[in-house]
Amino acid sequence: MEGTATFFAEQVTLNQLVQNLIYGSGTVGALMVVAGLLMIDAGTTRSGNLYNSTIEKMVGFFIGFTTYFVIGFGFWAGQYYIMGGATMMDSLKDWWFFGALSNAHAQDVDPAVWPGLNTFQIFIFFLATFAGIVNVLLHFAVSERMKASAFYVTCVVATVVSSVLSWAAWGSVGPLTNAGFHDFFGIGFVYIFPTGIAMVLVPQLGKRPGMFSPHPKVPSYKAPSIGLAAVGLLTIFSGLPMVILSCLFFVDPEAYAISVTMADTSVGIAFNNYGISWAGGAITGAIISYRTKNYIYLLFGPLAGYVSGAPGFDVYLPWQMFLVSLGAPVACWLVYEFTYKRQIDEHKLFPLFIGAGFYALVMVGLIKAGTPRGGYIGIEEGIYAYQHGQIGIVMQLVGFAVCLGTGILTGLILSVILKATTGLRVSEEDQAEGLDKLKWGLENEGNG
């Protein structure tokens, strides 16, 4: 190639392109999840705060997305550097925004230095999308009550901390995963971590007007479109199968798939586990909804089923996955009722990720105990030997505690700093008046 000192054709083969497309599709799926979450928010947020809530989620998403591009990926990739005898700092130097590998053309990089460079570069986009999702999820817990400036600062910090947590808790050779913590879909650093932050912030932000008792300006808290929330749910359902592909490694011979945790699996089994988890959760959620006459469990049910299987889509058999998912909405129901009776104004993250999330990690630790995983393929001895570790209940509990505890600690530190600087809470009067009107001059019909 003219103008290029050396051209490494093996970096840009058809096989490489197929892998690039597989991981690129995962990014598309993750973006569909973002769209679905915004639909759920639009369907369940009081109309007087609807635009402001949506735009804060979007800005928070892109703050997290950008922060991850700047520094986040180097933390996750650092597990492979450390495995090879290098350091985390080496990874950060190579993969930060101006790093050598994050800015190189694949065909210009010797495979001996980094094979499959295009795929790893695509993974920056993929994981940056989930860094943004962390912030969108957190906003569900603090929406309408937290000052935008405080939330945006939190987005930067949460992105960096969740990136470090991904190094420890998602992959195959990070310290937690290599020791036995099994989390195929990364619910620890994406779902449970922001829930820990919310556990600190929600009590300090208080209840929204009209949520539990009438307010002079808000007689009751009304969701504008449950139907739109249901469409958002199906959008998430449609996008996540592509994400499953990005949680698999494809190695020789040809399309042999192993999970990111280095457990034995296959594409078909992982896909079917995903689908049946939604079905099982939906069935139990519907039963609870009809018995309690509360629509919320019809939405919680499929999501709870999905969360219950996410750590183990790679290792469950479909019939096992179905039975596990049937119990997940019950875990949600217990947490939801506990918090609602105590007038704790957080109805999404706590039931799903403390209830179903804890249940999920425990069940895979019990049902699939002894399943070999961890290490890295091709390594036959030492602390990173392929499948040297086994799934077990103790490390599942440790992983949950670390992910939730990291979120709680992050929330505690942030709350002190934010109270002393930007301030934390939107006044109750402004919440009742409606932030769309106060901030943007938007009038909504039926400002309830």
Automatic annotation (TrEMBL):
Gene3D superfamilies: Ammonium transporter AmtB like domains
Localization: Membrane
Residues of the Ammonium transporter AmtB-like domain: 30-441
Keywords: Ammonia transport, Membrane, Transmembrane, Transmembrane helix, Transport
MF annotations from Gene Ontology: ammonium channel activity
Transmembrane segments annotated in the record for this chain: 20-40, 61-82, 120-138, 150-172, 184-205, 226-251, 271-288, 295-313, 319-338, 350-371, 391-418
GO biological process: ammonium homeostasis
UniProt topology in membrane: Multi-pass membrane protein
Main localisation: membrane
SUPFAM superfamilies per record: Ammonium transporter
Pfam family, one: Ammonium_transp
GO cellular component, one term: membrane
Family that this chain belongs to: Belongs to the ammonia transporter channel (TC 1.A.11.2) family.
Identification of the protein by name: Ammonium Transporter Family protein
Lineage: Bacteria, Pseudomonadati, Pseudomonadota, Alphaproteobacteria, Rhodobacterales
